[in-house]
Amino acid sequence: MTPADRPARPSVRSHRETHGGTGPGSGPVLAGRGPRVSTVVIGTLALILLVQRLVLPVGPSPVQLSILVAYGALALLLLTGQARADRMRAELFMLAVALCLVATLTAAAMGSTPSLPSLGLLILLYLLWIYRVVPEATASLITVARGFVWMMLVFASVGIVQLVSQFVGVWSYTDYVGEFLPPVLIDDSFNSSIPVVYGSPVHKANAFVFLEPSFFSQFTALGAVVAVVTRAPAWQVLVLVGGVFSAVSGTGLIVLLVGGLLIAVRAGWLIRPVHVGALALAAVGLLASPVAPLLTRRMGETSQVGSSGYLRFVQPYAEVAGALREDPIRFLMGYGAGSVDRLLPSGREGREPVVYTIIPKLVFEYGLVAGGVLALFIVLVLLDRGAWRVVPGTVLVMIFLLSGSLLQPHTVVTAWLLTGLWAGGAGRRLDQLDRSRLLADEGTDRGVGLPAPRGRLLL
Question: Residue 455 — very low, low, confident or very high, per pLDDT cuts 50/70/90?
Answer without folding.
Answer: very low
